[in-house]
């Protein structure tokens, strides 16, 4: 199974378009954060809940600044397609997200994410189950039934900035 670059662009856009409106807005990132908190049972005012919300706002701010060419508060697929989450963009706007998302899944703070929590996150994000189970197996290199938060963060960075195929 692999996801080519054009397919990944569409997949990323669809994943970011959490409310399936056909465009990306701040509401999508807010909805993502609230769904993830809900599925994992993390209160909005818990430190990791707050970190996730702030990371999502930052991600949105970076998207709006870089990709909303007509400044209408929405990022269309065409606008998204002409933008790239390059490493410099990601370091500024995506890094907090790449840290906060794995952290919120690591409910007992041991640096490992349980399979159910990993799959729960991905279902909250609208990620197809066939991909999330495959991704879990790929990241669970030791076959321990857990994925390290660092490996998951590394995957998230590559998912947004990498040019090669993933999954
Ligand atoms: Ca949307
Ligand atoms: Ca726009």
TrEMBL record:
Upper taxonomic lineage: Bacteria, Bacillati, Actinomycetota, Actinomycetes, Streptosporangiales
Pfam family, one: EF-hand_5
Signal peptide: none
Name the record gives this protein: EF-hand domain-containing protein
Domain EF-hand: start-end pairs: 127-162
PROSITE patterns linked to this entry: EF_HAND_1, EF_HAND_2
Superkingdom field: Bacteria
SMART domains: EFh
Species in which this protein is naturally found: Nonomuraea antimicrobica
